[in-house]
Design a protein that fits this description.
About 45% of the residues lie in helices and about 15% in strands. It is α/β, with parallel strands linked by helices. It has one domain: TIM Barrel. α2 packs parallel to α4, α2 crosses α12 and α5 runs parallel beside α6. It is globular and about 55 Å long.
């Protein structure tokens, strides 16, 4: 089944465009890490279980698993298995991209059927089309791709906003995303070639939607990075569709501001996030 159709169906089934970022910070001074008595795998998997009723997808950030070596990658594989068991859409936040043969290996790792196989992966397009095509080739197998277009970090404009003649570089990438995805539209009318556009740049999100009318836009920046629901829904289509919104720290570490357990606090925060986003999307539909 087309990835975009599966994602659209998951959003409807959960009445939620919220995504749980499963990003277990490292155990270091000033970092929350993994709370006792949890193991890395049990912490991540229990949060996925607790948040499953309120999110349409989960998005593990590979860096936090890779940094922990073999134990970290075993935990990542457990998160993959847990998400599969719960029927959740699984997005590997890997931001991969390299020469064609290397990208093909990355695509097999994260969009194949092995231990790390997910439904979709984030991709860095800055080495050009030959670095993205091996990922896009997996669309025929029901997989999806989210291309970095305009990211949420403060210094994103250092390169992404540089003029490319008729606009900034990120807009040229957005146009390519629309072109790459145009041949793969699902029954939902959406493309499995999506984009990452940060909520911290809401004006750019509006422009991104105009450039990519049929792309799912993955929106980071909500919650701990400072963007609110109105910012996060700027890239939505007029009917409120076409976006998924990620939060990680504000869900995973909600227990630090609560007297409840990590899974209970995360579930409560995910429920509140879903309701917050739905209220903002209702305003989008009213304004269209």
């Amino acid at each position: 089944m087309n990835f975009a159709d599966r994602l659209a169906a998951a959003i409807i089934a959960k009445n939620s465009c919220a995504v749980l970022g499963v990003d277990p910070h490292l155990d270091a001074p000033g970092s929350p890490g993994v709370p006792k008595p949890y193991t890395l795998a049990s912490f991540c998997c229990e949060l996925v279980e607790a948040c499953a009723p309120y999110v349409c997808a989960v998005k593990p950030q590979l860096a936090f698993y890779e940094a922990r070596g073999l134990d970290g990658m075993r935990a990542f594989a457990e998160v993959v298995r847990t998400a599969r068991r719960l029927g959740l859409i699984l997005i590997a936040d890997a931001k991969r991209g390299d020469i064609g043969s290397t990208s093909a290996a990355y695509a097999e790792a994260f969009l194949g059927d092995g231990d790390f196989g997910c439904d979709a992966v984030t991709v860095n397009p800055y080495q050009g089309a030959d670095s993205t095509m091996p990922f896009i080739a997996r669309i025929a197998r029901g997989r999806g791709v989210f291309v970095l277009v305009k990211t949420s970090n403060p210094s994103s404009g250092e390169f992404q906003d540089v003029s490319a003649g008729d606009g900034p570089i990120w807009q040229r990438i957005a146009a390519r995303v629309a072109g790459w995805g145009g041949d793969y539209l699902g029954d939902s009318g959406m493309s499995p070639v999506g984009a990452v556009v940060g909520a911290t740049y809401p004006d750019d999100a509006l422009s991104a939607r105009r450039l990519m009318p049929q792309a799912f836009i993955l929106v980071p920046g909500y919650g701990a990075q400072g963007a609110n629901a109105a910012d996060a829904t700027m890239a939505a289509r007029g009917d409120g569709s076409g976006i998924i919104v990620n939060a990680s720290r504000s869900l995973m570490y909600a227990y630090r501001k609560s007297k409840t357990s990590p899974p209970e606090a995360a579930a409560s925060a995910a429920s509140a996030m879903r309701d917050d986003l739905n209220a903002a999307l209702a305003r989008v539909r009213q304004a269209s």
